[in-house]
Amino acid sequence: MKDRFSLILGLVIIIIFIVLLFIFESPFFKEHQTHTYKEALEIHTQSDSPAVTQKDNKFVYADKKDIDKYMDIEKSKTDLQFMDLSKKVDISEKQVKDILKDKGVLKGKEKAFINAQEKYDVNVIYLMSHAFIETGNGNSELASGVKMSNGKKFYNFYGIGAFDQDAVETGSSYARKKGWTSPEKAIHGGAEFVKKEYLNNEQNTLYKMRWNPYNPGQHLYATDVNWATSIGQIMESYYDKHDLKKSKIYKDYYK
Q1: Distance separating alpha carbons of residues 226 and 228, to the nearest angstrom
Q2: Which end of the chain is more exposed for a tag (fewer CB within 10 A), N or C?
Q3: What is the pLDDT of residues 193-240, one digit of tens each?
Q4: CA distance 116 to 93
């Protein structure tokens, strides 16, 4: 009987060892062990691509306190910046239409947004909320279409390729390169870009897109420290208004 107990105990120990080995060697575990929060904060503070923040209606360089305010997970104003954006939202076309009803050039583009979610597996509430931030609710010059000398208009709803020094010129130049000659093409192009460059690159939450905790200071979508929080809060308002089911929340990013 004693020998049998020892055998069972030995098997249990082996199983526990194998499970622990799998956990500690798995990519999921390793990617959460890259940096401590303090180390990541220091990297962002000293980055060659400095963060910015808005003060007195203009953007200025952010200091360590500004960065910490928005980077600190415990201080977050919304959990939706930690939600997996690669999961589709169960939402009707009528609900999407309602969200877009006062959004400038984006109004009436519900089919394009829904189709983009279906084709690229990118959360449609995120796609709309991100577009609202980047386009001033569908009313910016870049969103309205930049007209070329040949009469063609090019649209860019996600600030892709647009740099702060001359966002209209650089953003429209990128749109020309991609052939985004209609709002629908710009919506699909933006979804494809986010999917390929971020969601498929282990940056599947707004927080990861802005702060990249596994490789701080590198491959960031935006320089504005409030970028992820702002989009997350817009998303949250629509999730609450339309009683939508949220996807999984991830917050375990640092040692």
Answers
A1: 6
A2: N
A3: 999 999 999 999 999 999 999 999 999 999 999 999 999 999 999 999
A4: 13
Q: DSSP H helical segments within the chain, as ranges?
A: 2-25, 27-30, 37-45, 64-71, 93-99, 110-120, 124-135, 141-144, 167-178, 183-197, 206-211, 227-241
Answer whether 78's CB lies under 8 Å from 240's CB: no
Domain boundaries of the chain, sorted by first residue: 1-30, 37-241
H-run or E-run covering 55: strand 52-55
Instruction: Yes or no: say if 54 and 24 are a contact pair by the CB < 8 Å rule.
Output: no
210/168 Cα distance (integer angstroms):
22
Question: What would the pLDDT profile of 96-128 be if each residue is shown by its tens digit?
Answer: 999 999 999 999 999 999 999 999 999 999 999
Judge whether 239 and 85 are in contact, CB under 8 Å. Answer: no
Q: Which residues contact 132 (CB under 8 A, 6 or more apart)?
A: 103, 106, 138, 234
**Is the pLDDT at 15 greater than 80, yes or no?**
no
